Amino acid sequence: MIGYKEITEFLNYGIFFYALTIMSFYVVLAFISFRALQRYTRNEKNTYFDDILRSPLAPSISIIAPAYNESLSIVDNIRSLLSLHYNNYEIIIVNDGSKDDSVLRMIEAYDLEPINTMECAYLNHKPIKEVYKSKNPAFSKLLVIDKENGGKSDALNAGISYAKSDLVACIDVDCIIEDDALLRMVKPYLEETRRKVVAVGGVVRIANDCVIKNGRLLQVKLAKKWLPTFQTLEYIRAFLLGRMAWGEMNGLLIISGAFGLFDRKTVLEVGGYDTSTVGEDMELVVRMRRFMADNDKPYRVAYVPDPLCWTEAPEELSIFQKQRNRWTRGTIETLLAHQKICFRPKYGLMGMLSYPFWLLFEWLAPLIEFTGLIYFAVLAILGWIDWQHFFILITLVYTFSLLISWIALLLEEKTYREYTQGRALLKLLFAAMIEPFVYHPITVWSAVRGNFDKFIRRKKTWGEQKRKGFKAT
Predict the structure, then answer these.
(1) Which candidate, 91, 224, 226, 82, places its Cα nearest to that of 159?
(2) 24, 151, 169, 419: least buried by Cβ within 10 Å?
(3) Residues contacting 472, CB < 8 A, separation 6+
(4) pLDDT grade for 328, boundaries at 50, 70 and 90
């Protein structure tokens, strides 16, 4: 008969090997990211973006920005998009049934008038109320679509349906986009000759407390509050160490909904965004990859490590937890919808490595960690804990977590150095030290709640996300 000692020993070794496996993965990803960043920064010195700007061969781009109750900042955000450094692009603002005066503000600021125009293609979306174009030639790039509320993915489908360009850049309208963002994001489409580039993702950074005026980022500053500071550290780690490596291996499964550039033809072929999921950004990328693999077409999902997009992070704990809850539900929905690709050699690295990684270490890791805490509490009550083994494991995990965060900050300092103030760097280093005890438990609990809401409460709504908005400083 198996006793408690055998069960305890089995679980202890299971947790240990699980932790060892995930740490090994992150070490490999960090090494790949380091080499890829070195190569990228070296090649950037030989890139002449002015040539891309003037080149007639540069593909046309439609920037699609859904807007819902954005009246406080919509005018400045459009002004920022109109000033991007690119030759052949259009801006499509999709007002997704806003309850405020967003449309009125756009009409007044940009001299808009209703026009009769047909959709270039059709994707599933809610009815269109009106389409506006500016009477002022200075704003000829701007198109405004006013539609019934259907959610972000529905609004993106409407924008893609009216887009005329080769590529579509799907962004959050309240994000700050760098002036040269399109030039850098389009580069993989021009360089790749052997495979079709179906999507390109870029780095997203936290803009809380940065100096912003008229929709332009003037000075980068670290957030004053601790919650967005932890998110800044998390974003640096995730984008520089995680997505950089997956992009290098062509195994990237997600492109941030804040800013992504997609091949419009491929998006139309797969049917656009799925309006039934709250993880529309990840689901679209996986579906596009699956479509290309099913049709035996060589393809690539590329990644650009330059800080090109700045977004507002939640500063209130309740809003942050809702965001992470939604991210968890979106991940679950995507993984379940495309479970047939798991360990299928037909889908290459995506099926053999990317999908299993997301399954074991993105979806299940918080559940395993939470279950492990309950298991530890039970053992503590029963007096069955091997304290020496416990402290060794905790020290190992904490040291590794700290090391990974500091490596990410080191790469940030050696490459883009956005946070140049000494105090900012010290604050990020200190945040890495206390993150496992302060911030990480919140993210784990939010993920657990996301699983509960998905499978028990059957929650499907996206939910409203309140934002403070960027104020001129």
Answers:
(1) 91
(2) 24
(3) 212, 213, 214
(4) very high
C-alpha distances (whole Å) from 327 to each of 55, 259, 365, 373 are 39, 16, 14, 23
Higher per-residue confidence, 51 vs 382: 382
pTM for the full model?
A: 0.93
Query: Which residues on adjacent β-strands are paired with residue 213?
Result: 216
**Sheet order of strands, 61-67 included:** 112-114, 128-134, 142-147, 89-96, 61-67, 167-171, 259-263, 196-206, 299-311, 176-177
What's the chain's Rg over C-alpha atoms? 23
Mean pLDDT in the chain? 91
Q: How confident is the model over 193-224, as pLDDT tens digits?
A: 899 999 999 999 999 999 988 888 899 999 99
> Which residue, 269, 273, 258, is CA-closest to 154?
273
